Amino acid sequence: AKGGDKGTWQRYQPELHGAMVQRLEIRAALHEAIEGGQFRPMFQPIVDLHTGLIAGVEALVRWEHPARGLLGPFHFIEVAEESGAIVAIGMSVLRAALSQFTRWKTDDPSTSLRYVSVNVSARQFRTPGFVDQVREALAEAGARPEWLLLEITESLVLRDADQVWDDLRALRAMGIRIAIDDFGTGYSSLSYLRQMPVDVLKLDKSFIDDILSSDQQHTMVDTIVTLARNLDLAVVAEGIEDAGQRDALARMGCPYGQGYLFSKPVWPGEITELVRGVLTDI
Ligand code: C2E
Ligand code: CA
Ligand code: CA
Ligand code: CA
């Protein structure tokens, strides 16, 4: 241990030590996992609240760990961000999502599925050549740019705006659409929204949780939905867990919703069945 620096090395804390060892283990295992293709996306439906049809799907990464089983992002995404592994993981999710989506479109040209939504971390977005990598991934998968929605965070759009906004404009010029994920949890002022080069707002679950019990939350969501409509932005309400929330959102004119009420994230075969099931219901 470092000598003399009493401020840094205080008492021995077993829990902290355990957590640190685990992070180091994860970090070391990430490389092999990337090489071995152990990261795969599950997909969660995004539903048109007006028609009830599945309009899109969000790709959500899972780690198929050979010893620990299926791991969600909670177990590794922070470490992957810190180490930079998220760049490679993100690209492999993008490629897998695009090739799967192309398969859905090819298998059933009249499918209700219009797009696949893919999360992009700030670090990945700021990697030089990101825009070209996306273009190549589309070409490789035989996917159309209109099929792709990229989800980025509010803080990325606000920080070093110039370079980021240029890249966002380049992606949109290709026909790709951009969503702000977890909208409402950051600090973007509503007036700033008008200028942002984005197409979709994903309203964070924390706003949806209380829309039935809190008049204030209800008013807040209603206001954002109205504002978004006036700005020509689509809205996806996240984390819808019951029919009451869905109905309230539909009444406000919120166009899209996502949440356990409709489906958890599932493997591709189940999406195919859900899409078919919903279609025959109508
Ligand atoms: P997110 O992008 O906000 O994704 C939504 C998360 O909420 C997902 O968790 C989803 O399974 C969960 N969720 C959806 N509907 C409901 C609901 O009705 N109730 C509740 N309680 N939860 C719901 P998941 O899959 O564990 O992902 C967590 C986060 O990890 C994501 O949050 C996203 O920030 C990140 N993430 C996932 N996949 C990727 C990826 O490929 N790249 C990057 N950079 N981040 C990813
Ligand atoms: Ca997301
Ligand atoms: Ca989100
Ligand atoms: Ca979230």
TrEMBL record:
Q: Which domain of life is it from?
A: Bacteria
Q: Does the keyword Transmembrane apply?
A: yes
Q: Which UniProt keywords apply?
A: Membrane, Transmembrane, Transmembrane helix
Q: Which residues form the signal peptide?
A: none
Please list the residue ranges annotated as the EAL domain: 23-279
Protein name, as recorded: Bifunctional diguanylate cyclase/phosphodiesterase
Residue range from the parent sequence: 732 to 1013 of 1014
